[in-house]
Amino acid sequence: MSFLQSRSRLVKLCVVSGAVTLVTFMVYYYTPVHKFKSYSSTIWLQNFTKGSQNVDEPQDLVTTMTATLIKMLQGSTDMKPHNVTADCNNIWNSCRPKNCSKYISQSPEKRIRDLLSPKLTLNDQDRQLISYLSYLIPENDVIFATATSSNHYDETQAMVHSLHTVVYPRVQNMSIVLLDLGLTQEQRQKTEKSCRCQVISFPSDKVPSYFKELGFCAWKPVLIMACMMKARKSVVYQDASIYWKDTIVDFLDRGDKLGLQIWGGVGMHNIPVTTLKGTFDYFGEEPCAYLNYTSLQAGINVFKQTPFVVRTILEPWAKCALEPDCICPGCTKNHLNCFKPKKEIHMCHRFDQSVLSVITTKLFSYERYRFHMPGSDADDGRYVTINRGQKKPNYFN
Length: 397
Ligand SMILES: *[C@@H]1O[C@H](CO)[C@@H](O)[C@H](O)[C@H]1NC(C)=O
Ligand SMILES: *[C@@H]1O[C@H](CO)[C@@H](O)[C@H](O)[C@H]1NC(C)=O
Ligand SMILES: *[C@@H]1O[C@H](CO)[C@@H](O)[C@H](O)[C@H]1NC(C)=O
Ligand SMILES: *[C@@H]1O[C@H](CO)[C@@H](O)[C@H](O)[C@H]1NC(C)=O
Ligand SMILES: *[C@@H]1O[C@H](CO)[C@@H](O)[C@H](O)[C@H]1NC(C)=O
Fold this sequence. Notes:
single chain; alpha/beta; six-stranded mixed β-sheet; transmembrane helix; membrane
């Protein structure tokens, strides 16, 4: 792997690529959640994301989800595990710790029980926020979700051009949802006119203040959850740097068959070097247990609309994003910087990406590799090309 490539893999795959900007959110009148009662999405959210009081007893839920997990781990996948052999003396890549006091539980039931615990379950206020956003999203089979801000406007136009020319002709019953994290009024108008997509915004007074630090990407899991409420089949999340190929249908089929597709490239560093200790504490995990797993990229993924994916991955991810002690434990903007000469555990933090890495590794443990995207170890892979900084400044004019 070339230096350039490994360095580019370090850049946080997020719409703002490490730049941290303060934006003024557009202020929307906040509709109380009871006004949405007639929408199926609200019922759906209650059925699958509440502690499931009305549907299942908690133990039933644990049993059901554990059975689903075991079944998923028996399905066929053409992926192979990463073979980690390095010791942890030069800490950066995946390595085998000599002694670790607590490894990831090998009991699927314990792992599921942890991920369904109250501290990782959305409360009423969280659900109102997600309902509010989902109310702005039209229902469709497949929803492509992405976000933009004014300094990424030209890149967003190039990305939407790729969606229009590559994805639209090949995928039926799909739509794009674009989260506006700070477009100017003029950019927003042009986008709404030309993007053939739904542009939505957060209610500024209903999100934690650190949602405004766009580089933290706390908005991402919340956006994905809101889209999931309106997706009949799946949600595809993509950053502005992702360009599709004519293999898109195969990729979606893979997500549909396996339940999810995550990017776990073999060249990535391990999880604890780019994840603060407080995040592990929130999940009740020991950082050293995660040293031999690569960090995921959170800039592209496919999530199938199933109770399992929603309850055991998306809900803990969204809940964590809404809890500063989980996504941002004592964090500062300085924690975004992973380009430090001295490599050490917890040296920086990848926010949304750190959390998704912990959740999926905890959930699938050694078998997480089954859900990795195949052929994606290079920036020009089987399904997508990562191309940062590509611009089409006049596409929306
Ligand atoms: C949600 O639960 C209600 C009542 O238990 C049921 O009638 C409805 O079909 C469920 N909705 C979905 C989307 O599963
Ligand atoms: C890891 O090792 C196993 C057994 O030796 C082998 O079958 C597999 O191909 C290896 N995986 C990779 C990605 O090299
Ligand atoms: C990580 O370490 C654990 C415990 O030694 C082991 O079971 C697991 O296979 C390792 N994972 C990888 C990806 O090598
Ligand atoms: C590793 O083992 C040594 C000696 O047994 C012990 O002092 C140390 O605390 C252990 N480290 C961890 C992370 O368990
Ligand atoms: C798209 O939606 C229409 C109407 O619901 C349906 O008849 C058609 O089969 C769908 N196409 C695909 C590829 O799912």
